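Example 9 (inverse folding). The structure is encoded as follows.
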């Protein structure tokens, strides 16, 4: 079991709903209703992220959260809490205990997937180290730590929105992002009516990327956009 999103939720219908949405987004998923099983799985190296209900029947979810962030020396597993505990003090307590994000029920499955992907993107960027990442045989280089992009060695000056678009696409090369997903990645969850303006930002981003712009940011008709270049090994 490698690179798996572990869903720990005792409600069977919710557990299966979350599993379906994550798998549709391309994530391998393992599900369980048991906190004890989750603790056992966290002792292995295969779990990359946990979606965790705090109200488990056998083990306090906070124990699972603690194990994710300290159970294996030198390795922390990010956790997105999914819970009915919506009070402000509960949110603060969860974040203080190490939760990387906090989603309350009832929830949007699409938003949950976006939040999971955002956490994975951050943790993978940290794990990859401070060096830049290259695409298309070195023609495109992204350095997220320095917040720099370059094409053929020439720096590309991007607005925050354009930078967010580019790093969202380069974070999962080849994956098709809908306009709605890109809005939520770039502008935040409150910009629900912002989808169509993404096209204008993509147009500006392509222009700044020069002759490669259309190849780097590919249009998938009727769906959205994806990165057209693969990441260099």
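The amino acid assigned to each position is listed next.
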């Amino acid at each position: 079991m490698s690179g798996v999103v572990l869903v720990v939720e005792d409600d069977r219908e919710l557990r299966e709903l979350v599993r379906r949405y994550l798998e549709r987004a391309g994530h391998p998923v393992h599900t369980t209703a048991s906190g004890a099983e989750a603790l056992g799985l966290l002792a292995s190296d295969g779990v990359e992220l946990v979606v965790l209900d705090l109200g488990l029947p056998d083990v306090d979810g906070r124990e699972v959260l603690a194990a994710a962030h300290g159970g294996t020396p030198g390795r922390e597993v990010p956790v997105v809490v999914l819970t009915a505990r919506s009070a402000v003090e509960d949110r603060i307590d969860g974040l203080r205990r190490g939760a990387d994000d906090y989603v309350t029920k009832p929830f949007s499955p699409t938003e949950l997937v976006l939040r999971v992907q955002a956490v994975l993107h951050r943790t993978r960027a940290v794990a990859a180290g401070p060096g830049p990442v290259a695409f298309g045989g070195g023609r495109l280089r992204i350095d997220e730590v320095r917040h720099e992009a370059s094409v053929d060695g020439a720096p590309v000056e991007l607005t925050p929105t354009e930078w967010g678009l580019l790093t969202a696409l380069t974070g999962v090369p080849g994956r098709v992002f809908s306009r709605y997903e890109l809005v939520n990645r770039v502008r935040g969850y409150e910009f629900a009516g912002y989808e169509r303006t993404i096209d204008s930002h993509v147009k500006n981003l392509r222009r700044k990327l020069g002759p490669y712009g259309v190849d780097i940011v590919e249009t998938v008709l009727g769906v959205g956009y994806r990165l057209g270049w693969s990441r260099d090994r």
